[in-house]
Amino acid sequence: MVPPASHYLRTVRLVAADAAVRTGLDCEEIEDFRIAIDELTHLLMASTDDFIELWFVAVDERVVAHGRARCRSGSARSLGDLSELILASTADYYNVTSVDDEMAFEVVKQKRRVLADRA
After folding, report:
1. What is the pTM of this model?
2. Class of 6-110 per CATH?
3. Tens digit of each residue's pLDDT (9 = 90 or more) over 38-66
């Protein structure tokens, strides 16, 4: 649970990076995941006065994060064009949903496969 204040984003990014490290992602992939988490968590923070629930799952060579919060009445926001572009370039998959008074997200980052040199 994270309070909906931007100065807690640093802590969220650190936890996201730790989860990504545990899956074996490289430095670039870890940074991409942190950026994606930052965008999505900020979206929730802008829409709520309640605590934000976040959880991270590191499975094999993939890290998955989920977040959700109850939104202020009429304050559920959508991703802007720039945020959409950032997420498309940093995450392998993301989804934002808003149902009734709750907004949620899921984001996935997968370790890239490097093709071995053929001799």
Report:
1. 0.88
2. alpha beta
3. 999 999 999 999 999 999 999 889 999 99
